[in-house]
């Protein structure tokens, strides 16, 4: 891997910014890579558009903005509609299968879906839906090792929720590994 540019998108309240932060933290603190995170969100606290641009590289990152991501993670239909046109041809799309209906995919895009909301609800806490998606993302992209991501999770979530978040990560990771 030399450099990977991605956008993680959805709506406020889905943990989009935390997801981007965890990717960067896993890469920089546990794998000696470089990472940049740029976050954006609407004026609403919950329900408004939200996104994280993340670049991970083996070399220093000279330009932080992601214009044409090779990976797009989208957890809402509105975010999908807004950002799918930016995904580079041949890129990777990861989406929440119960909230997003893909249309008009760029040429050669590989798409992967995960029922992250349902898996989180089955765990008893819908709020870990982003961590389920993060586990799935980690399995699909292989940008960082799953143990690095788990270490990042342990340092970023509230102490009383570490076990739940690690279980959510494992469920998302195994969902891909077991053939979706």
Describe this structure in words.
The protein has one domain: Pyruvate-ferredoxin Oxidoreductase, domain 3 (3-Layer(aba) Sandwich). Helix content is 39%, strand content 22%. The chain has 6 helices and 6 strands; from the N terminus they run E-H-E-E-E-H-E-E-H-H-H-H. Strands 2-3-1-4-5-6 form a 6-stranded mixed sheet, with helices on both faces. The protein is globular and about 40 Å long. 46% of the residues are buried. The mean pLDDT is 92.
Helix content: 25-40%
Number of DSSP strands?
Answer: 6
Kindly state the mean pLDDT as a whole number? 92
Main beta sheet = 6 strands, mixed
CATH architecture: 3-Layer(aba) Sandwich
- Quickly give the structural class: alpha/beta
Secondary structure topology:
Elements: E1 3-11, H1 16-31, E2 34-41, E3 49-57, E4 71-74, H2 77-83, E5 92-96, E6 110-114, H3 116-122, H4 129-141, H5 146-156, H6 162-177
Parallel strand pairs: 1-4, 4-5, 5-6
Antiparallel strand pairs: 1-3, 2-3
Compact summary:
The protein is 39% helix and 22% strand. With 180 residues, it is of the alpha/beta class.
List keywords for this structure.
single chain, 180 residues, alpha/beta, Pyruvate-ferredoxin Oxidoreductase, domain 3, 6-stranded mixed β-sheet, 6 strands, globular
């Amino acid at each position: 891997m030399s450099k990977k540019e991605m956008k993680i998108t959805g709506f406020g309240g889905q943990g989009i910014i935390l997801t981007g932060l965890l990717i960067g933290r896993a890469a920089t603190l546990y794998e000696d890579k470089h990472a940049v995170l740029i976050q954006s969100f609407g004026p609403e606290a919950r329900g408004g558009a939200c996104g994280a641009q993340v670049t991970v590289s083996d070399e220093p990152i000279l330009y932080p903005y992601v214009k044409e991501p090779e990976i797009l993670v989208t957890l809402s239909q509105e975010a999908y509609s807004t950002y799918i046109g930016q995904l580079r041809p041949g890129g990777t799309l990861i989406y929440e299968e119960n909230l997003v209906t893909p249309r008009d995919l760029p040429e050669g895009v590989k798409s992967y879906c995960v029922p992250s909301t349902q898996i989180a609800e089955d765990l008893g806490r819908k709020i870990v839906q982003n961590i389920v998606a993060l586990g799935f993302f980690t399995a699909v992209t292989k940008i960082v090792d799953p143990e690095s991501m788990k270490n990042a999770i342990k340092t970023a979530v509230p102490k009383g929720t570490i076990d739940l978040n690690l279980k959510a990560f494992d469920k998302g990771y195994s969902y891909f590994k077991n053939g979706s």
